[in-house]
Amino acid sequence: MASATQLSFNDNAVLGALFDPESSLSNSTQISDTIPSQAAIPELQSIQAAEREALLPLNQEEPSESDIWKSISQLDTIIHNNPTYASAWNNRAQTRRMLYDIEQLCQQVQELRMVLDDLSHAIDLATPKNPLAPVPAMDAKVLASAHTHRGYLLYSASRSAKLAKAVISSVPNLHRLDKDGLEEMASREFTLGGRYGNDTARQLAVRTNPYAKLCGSIVKEAMQKEVADYNSQTQEVRS
């Protein structure tokens, strides 16, 4: 009988990450309520008040298109006056997305590009320069939302040839990716969204993880072989 294979510490960690979403994503980033946002923004409270006012018309079940455009216009002003305020970039992307469902985005390449650009700006501004340092809670909230939203768009593109074409035309660096590549990128975005506190992204990261899918298919194939061998042996005994 062959000796049992000894898994390295890293192998165990990888397998644990694949099959236990809580182990790898929930505690990998320290989020602090006591440290300020890395972007030193004067008059932060007044900016946040203006942002809340801009988003107030959206706080209803079905905001009108005019309300959405009004919010976008107010967020435009906030961003123009405070270009390092990450939350406004993220909220403008989220607000603009309210104008179109996924199918409509296929025909709105310019709008899709603006959404993706705003998400990228928000992520760039809020991402800590030191990956080992605690993340301010305000920045973590932006990162959780922006990465999850970008992951959702990439995942949707991996399921729709029309949206994939629109996304790739909006982000030229993606032009070599097929549907599997887009889904893998979506998984990375969901992983980051989960790391910064979005529970839905945490679960989606595991479901879309290509290595977990590979391991799952290997396990399934091995189980099918075991069942086939067992059935074959049973038939031989009966004969």
From TrEMBL:
InterPro entries recorded: TTC36
UniProt similarity note: Belongs to the TTC36 family.
Top-level taxonomy: Eukaryota, Fungi, Dikarya, Ascomycota, Pezizomycotina
Biological process, per Gene Ontology: tyrosine metabolic process
Protein name per its UniProtKB record: Uncharacterized protein
Organism: Cyphellophora europaea (strain CBS 101466) (Phialophora europaea)
